[in-house]
Amino acid sequence: MNIFGFEIRKKGKSTSPAPQYANWTGSLSYRPFMSVNELLANGTVNACVSIIADAVAVLPLNIYKKTPQGDRKKVDNLPVADLFKLGVNFYQCPYSFKKQLMYHLLLKGNAFIFIERTAGEISALYLLDPTRTQIKKRSGVNEYYYEYTDENGTVYKYSSDDVIHIPAIVWSGVRGLSPIEYAARTASLGNSLDDYTANSFDGGIHSKLLLTIPKEERGWNEADSKQLSQAVVSAYGGAENSHKPFILSKGITATPLNLGSNEDNQLLENRTYTVKEIA
Questions:
Q1: Helical (H) or strand (E) element with 254
Q2: Ranked by mean pLDDT, which of 19-28, 121-130, 218-227 comes out on top?
Q3: What confidence tens digit (pLDDT) does each residue in 27-62 have?
Q4: How high does pLDDT run on average in the chain?
Q5: Which candidate, 66, 129, 163, 213, has a CA 20 to 30 Å from the CA of 116?
Q6: What share of the chain is helix, strand, coil (3-state, %, to 5)?
Q7: Which of 214, 227, 6 is nearest to 102 (CA)?
Q8: Per residue in 137-172, pLDDT tens?
Q9: CA-based Rg of the chain, rounded to a whole angstrom?
Q10: What is the C-alpha to C-alpha distance for residues 157 and 133, in angstroms, rounded to an integer?
Q11: Residues of 240-278 as b/e, b for ≥16 C-beta within 10 angstroms?
């Protein structure tokens, strides 16, 4: 069964006696690791994820059931159908629920939906934080369960009947990978280019200067050169000082060095390529 184009993995409940549990990872590790905040700090990642999540969130979600003939029939008289019309839970409307679900899939590669039941009927759906949810496998049994750790450190165990797991990209095992995890290095490079550009404008002098000391300054030494360099950067560095007049004394002259613009140094090309690669 598919939802939003992603496969839903749902396993039946085992009738075997309670066996021992064993950890199950089944996922690949990509470097560099980037948190959700670091990923969203990249403007291209943020825009792409937002566009996809918004586009999916506005789509209707219809409920179907199989007929004895094997066909599908749309149903509107089930409690779960009302959830996607009125409210999925007590704090989320259908739009915000579907949008958050897509953020989980795109950024973390997994969506975990907890099913709340009242008198045997589905009464609410809640998204579990993928970073706090672990998939575990019973040892010797082809059945999975889920461990969720809340903000206080309390661990909850849920059977596969209580949680719907939607993986984005499955490479091995059952835990999904997000498309962004594959592009983590590119996203990290984009953030580095943004930092470099910001630091260049905020703290640097944008034209390289050759400071020439007159021959008359016979006592000039390395310490004097370092002090002069620091004084020039302090007085004229940064965007706020870019329009100040340049004043030197003691016959010192400043000559701009044409070492290449940002475009010549391929900074702009790299930024453009990074945007296209992420998109």
A1: strand 253-257
A2: 121-130
A3: 444 445 667 777 777 777 788 889 999 999 999 888
A4: 74
A5: 66
A6: 35, 25, 40
A7: 6
A8: 888 888 899 999 999 999 999 999 999 999 988 876
A9: 29
A10: 10
A11: eeeeeeeeeeeeeeeeeeeeeeeeeeebeebbeebbeeb
Would you mind telling me the total number of residues written for the chain in this entry? Answer: 279
Amino acid, single-letter form, for residue 246: F
Between strands 121-128 and 133-138, the pairing is: unpaired
Tokens of 259: 């070492």
Q: Tokens 């059945």 appear where?
A: 143
Tokens standing for 164? 């719907």
Stated as kind and residue range, the H or E segment containing 159 is: strand 155-159
Candidates 134, 160, 164, 157; CA nearest to 7 is 164
| Range list of H helices, the chain | 36-41, 43-57, 79-83, 94-108, 179-182, 184-203, 222-236, 267-278
Q: Which pLDDT score is estimated for 112?
A: 97
Three-class SS state of 180: helix
